[in-house]
Amino acid sequence: MEPAYVRYGGLRRGKGDKFMKLTLDLVKKNSAINVFIKQTEKYLDALGYTDHGFRHVNIVSDRARSLAKQIGLSAKEQELAAIAAYCHDMGNFLGRSQHHYQGAVLFSQIFMDGCDSPEDISVVMQAIVSHDKDELKLVNKVSAILILADKSDVHRTRVKNKSLDKIKNDIHDRVNYSVTQNDLELNRAKKEISLRLKIDTKITNPVEYFEIFIGRMTFCRQAAQYLGYKFVLIINNFKLS
Ligand SMILES: [Fe+2]
Ligand SMILES: [Fe+2]
User: How many Cβ atoms sit within 10 Å of the Cβ of residue 176?
Assistant: First the structure.
């Protein structure tokens, strides 16, 4: 006898139910997604990393949606950007170095069979993979939005272990801890996307910031260019472009 409900890639659907529309709400309610984010937080806490859990993914998701809207992407692309951002780091619990690939595959395993648009799934997968891929080749705007939203989340509140010793000895913690404000701004007239940071120079200096973030800034420049914008970094009112 056939069961009343079939488990389609983690989505419970009744026999004859229509395929579901992929929304952030659906993703946030999925228990597997929540477990992967929780496990990621636990794993990276054990390794002494900065926050990659719910704080980070919610900030990145809100920021991705807002940037996608400001730039004039469609309502569907805004939704996909928010979804990709929410799920972009959830593969970390399986290991840091390939977390972007792992996250994308996990995402498709959960949603591919139950959702109405395999194309939407593929866009989210590409965005998740692209957010940390060495040989970056952008082919959709959702990926570019996610990169800018993710890389701009550098902030004091991302530091998990606030002991002065740890901050003194860990350059990632030190640089994040030094950032007291970060704003991602879009200027349509000037065609510029700016990341404006306020850094406490008693904790670190801009040189140390660059030591860590040069790779991220290169990603941001490529992402902004793909969207037809110029990326500008402003540290303590000093503009670098
Ligand atoms: Fe990541
Ligand atoms: Fe991230």
Answer: 24
Instruction: Please give the distance, rounded to the nearest whole angstrom, from the Cα atom of residue 16 to the centre of ligand 1.
Output: 38
CA of 92 to the centre of ligand 2 (A): 10
| Residue 2 token pair | 């056939």
Lowest mean pLDDT among 101-110, 121-130, 131-140, 208-217: 208-217
pLDDT at 167 over 90: no
Pairing of the two strands 5-8 and 11-14: antiparallel
Least distant ligand from the CA of 98: 1
The share of the chain scoring above pLDDT 70, in percent, equals 93
Whether the CA torsion 216, 221, 226, 229 is positive or negative: it is positive
Q: How far is the CA of 189 from the centre of ligand 1 (A)?
A: 31
The 10s digit of each residue's pLDDT in 169-188 is 888 889 889 999 999 999 99
Distance (Å) from CA 232 to ligand 1 centroid: 22
Strand, coil or helix: 112: coil
Q: What is the architecture of the domain spanning 20-240?
A: Orthogonal Bundle (1.10)
CA of 5 to the centre of ligand 2 (A): 35
Ligand nearest to the CA of 56: 2
Widest CA span of the chain, in angstroms? 69
